[in-house]
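Progress report, Aim 2. The chain analyzed during this reporting quarter is listed below.
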Amino acid sequence: MSGPITLDALDLAALLCSRVCHDLISPVGAIVNGLEVLEEAKDEETKTFALDLIRKSARNASARLQFCRLAFGAAGSAGAQIDLGDAEGMARGFLEDEKTKLNWNLPRALLPKNRVKLLLNMLVIAGQAIPRGGSLTAAAIGEGESMTFRITADGPSARIPPHAPNLLQGTPDGPVDAHAIQPFYTGLLARSCGLAVTVAAEGETIVVTAR
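Predicted structure tokens for the chain:
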């Protein structure tokens, strides 16, 4: 059986940029809408609504930018370590909302940059497994710099994200486009750490594991 496919560096960079843009379009668009409403507002109630929309959307855009910078970007020099406490704050800002709760059962520790990037990308995949919301739980396997992760996703209609298992293995059953790049990139991160990521159903729970 052939091994994982590779992407040209330019294609990988372009697809990751498309993914980041996709994550930012919604809150940035809401800021623009809020400013348009504010410009046309004739009463205080409408102005208050517009300002509230702008504030919430700006916070959301900032949280998404911080998360994407770490999950997909350089985030420090080669060989850098990242504090799991900082990663927790970014993950909560990106993933938590009125429908989704994140349970963070990981110690405060410094880990190699790519291992923390892997954790954040695993959380994104787990979040995609509960499209109607629910709970995500991040737990450690082992300790120290060799620590790996187990993410569980519980919620109504929880299911394995389409094509995720093959994309994580680097053996997609179709072209890798902007929608598929995130799980494909997660597999690349895992292999750079000497690990493999699996996603499986355990009863009604979806489990994403790196070993």
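The domain at 9-210 is CATH 3.30.565.10 (Heat Shock Protein 90). The CA atoms of residues 130 and 158 lie 5 Å apart. These observations will guide the mutagenesis work planned for the next reporting period.
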